[in-house]
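Following the same procedure, backbone shapes were mapped to integers, as reproduced here:
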Amino acid sequence: MARLDVSDGFDVHEYREGFKLRKETRRTMQLENRGSFECPACGKPFEELFVSEKRTNTFQSPPGPFCLVRTDDQLLLFTH
């Protein structure tokens, strides 16, 4: 398992072999973790990743625990 490196932001193309795109809009995307990547916040494997470039986001409660990571340009929500 590899921990996602988001120190210089997150680029899905660097990890595309391990993700399945679930949904994409102009400024958001939802990805399924098929590569057993580890969360950069807690180091544990995660199920899905929501990536947003929007300044504000509204979520319904994700099931189970989740982690948030902020890069310069994105908000990353990891669901476990």
Remarks:
- The longest strand covers residues 19-24.
- The beta strands are 19-24, 28-33, 48-52, 66-70, 75-79.
